[in-house]
Amino acid sequence: MGQLLIKLSNRQPQRLANALTGFTEAAVGLQRYALALQTNRRLTQIRPKEAVVWFNQGWLLNELGHKTKAIACYDAALAIQPDYHEALTNKGAALSALGQHEAAIACFDAALAIQPDDHHALDNRGYALTKAGCYSEAISSFDQAIKLNLSYANAIYNKAYCLSLMGDLIGAFAHLRQSFEIDPQYRDLAKTDTDFDPIRHDERFRALGEGGGKREG
What we know:
By secondary structure, this protein is mostly helical. The chain has 13 helices and no strands. The chain has a domain at 151-217.
């Protein structure tokens, strides 16, 4: 593959770019993100004015845990295409992961101004608002996301977290149960999710984690 890319780079830049794109996609499909990052980095050199190339670089860096570098790539994509709502959403998620919740909320607001029915952005916005202590506004954001996708387990799970912080444990456990029923992986996630540490001692939480739990009337 390396010799092929050298030949292509010397003769046909367009074919080289296409080959790199295909190789990057194949590496992502195999979850070999470090390898995909290397090939996509070549694309940023060949096609530096294409927003999607920088977006992909940001996505790969984020998957590898390099949040700050990912944000820089999303910024590069947005400098080329300011209305790139996926870049705004992903930048917001990276900022939130770094604890920069106010900046994250601004990104989600900008993304939703472009695409108001993006349930992922609404969910992420709700989580950032929760972390910022804006619980009522967070609940509204989660509800909008769930209205757009009634089986959106992630938003239901995150709403449970927000409700737990508000002291509504009945609501929190009901939403946890609902998220578990939609997608059982959330039951496993909740067992180690530090967001739920304050209510982990509650027997209702333990019962839910074991697959049981009495429904609240």
